Amino acid sequence: QVQLVESGGGLVQPGGSLRLSCAASGSIISVYTMGWYRQAPGKQRELVATITRSGNTNYADSVKGRFAISRMNVKTTALQMNSLKPEDTAVYYCNAQVLTTTTTSNYWGQGTQVTVSS
Hints:
Elements: E1 2-7, E2 10-12, E3 18-26, E4 30-39, E5 46-51, E6 57-59, E7 67-73, E8 76-81, E9 90-99, E10 104-108, E11 112-116
Parallel strand pairs: 2-11
Antiparallel strand pairs: 1-3, 3-8, 4-5, 4-9, 5-6, 7-8, 9-10, 9-11
């Protein structure tokens, strides 16, 4: 069984910063691409940022220059969010492509709420 556990969400004022973290655990041989997605009320889930095992990154246009994704080790990733805007308010989900003993599958975390409001 594979689990992704996120932490670091909360309430922040516009212009502020937050750092989200995600750790994968379980019967893992390796973790390939990890990423962050978000879903605001009434909207579809959207890509925020991804990072490969080799460190290649990809960002949504709306967060470029403000957010930075990093990989601390094979099983953990973080999202540093700066200059936050009210439109960044959403539930943020960690995603990972995980290789286990039987297959490679896509896993999701439970989500962490980020609220940007004065």
